[in-house]
Amino acid sequence: MKIQVLQSQKGITLVELLAAITLFAIVIVFSSTLIVHFSANNQKTSDSIEMSQDVNVIISQLRNQYYNENTELCIHNEDISISNYTIVNGGDPEGNNHLKITNGCIQNVDNSKPIKINIQFKNKTGNQFALNTAFSTSKPHVLTVSTNNDDTELPDDNDYQDFPCKTNGSITISEDVKLRKGVCPNDTFIVTGALTTLGKISLQHDGVTLKVGGSAHFIKKVWMAQTAKIDISGAVAFNQIVLMNKDSLMRVGGAANFTEDLQMKKNSSINIGGSTIFYKNITMKKGAEITTSSAIIFGNATCNNEEISFTNKKLTCKK
């Protein structure tokens, strides 16, 4: 009698194979989506940096031509096109001082009169950005700030450029600017892209708000009136002193760098979504508070002249 011994032979069934293939496909699709999203963000950041560089170059070109008394101020950049502009040369209330751009050149410039330039550009990828600047042959205004009175705001005169109510895209402001009450709807100034200010910036009046959809870089002093607000969706860098008056508010979605001193008056507050580096001193008054995911403080943090420390993601002045 012949006896057959049946042995168990383990293997992968068709159902298991299909399940494994499906799971692998899901992982591939998910990974591809992340890669595409990451690449798009990198490209957007690269475009923003490139646009800021283009604006700085154009401002330098126009400034040099104006002070060399050229009657034509030409823009030399083949990678961008002009979509809209307003150029005012002098103070004619009838609008006869509005100049035209022909073949990339501002025509019939009178160098004896100040000129204000507002140009909307579009680059090859379709992104838009704005240039706002002004030049004058008159003696430049000199702002003197006492080291014992750093909360002095910018003088309320005409030597400072007004900030546009809304900018679609990124913008670089070359002059000292003020954000004034009663100029924009809800007293809110909006930049949908990145913002770079090369001069001082003052949120001049109580309750004025600045909203930035991208990152922000403030090269010079930032001054905020009582209850003024700065809302930045991306990262921010402050190269000079930042002064926040009573009940003023700052919100930053990304990381933040404070290169110089930060002064916070009573009940002012800062909320930072990313990490923060404070290279100099933080001076706080009663009720002032900083919230951030992590903080490195190279200087001293004081509350009414007494040292305080960063605890539970907060720096608070309770006294």
Notes on the structure:
- With 319 residues, the chain is α/β, with parallel strands linked by helices.
- Helix content is 17%, strand content 36%.
- The protein has one helix and 28 strands.
- The protein has one helix at residues 14-67; strands spanning 73-74, 80-89, 101-102, 105-106, 115-123, 128-135, 161-162, 166-167, 170-173, 177-179, 188-191, 195-197, 201-203, 209-212, 216-218, 222-224, 229-232, 236-238, 242-244, 249-252, 256-258, 262-264, 269-278, 282-284, 289-297, 301-303, 306-307, 314-316.
- The strands form three sheets. The chain has a 16-stranded mixed sheet that branches. Strands 7-10-13-16-19-22-24-26-27 form a nine-stranded mixed sheet, with no helix packed on it. Strands 1-4-3 form a three-stranded antiparallel sheet.
- The chain is flat.
- The protein starts with 13 loop residues before the first helix and ends with a strand.
- Mean pLDDT is 79; it is low at 138-158.
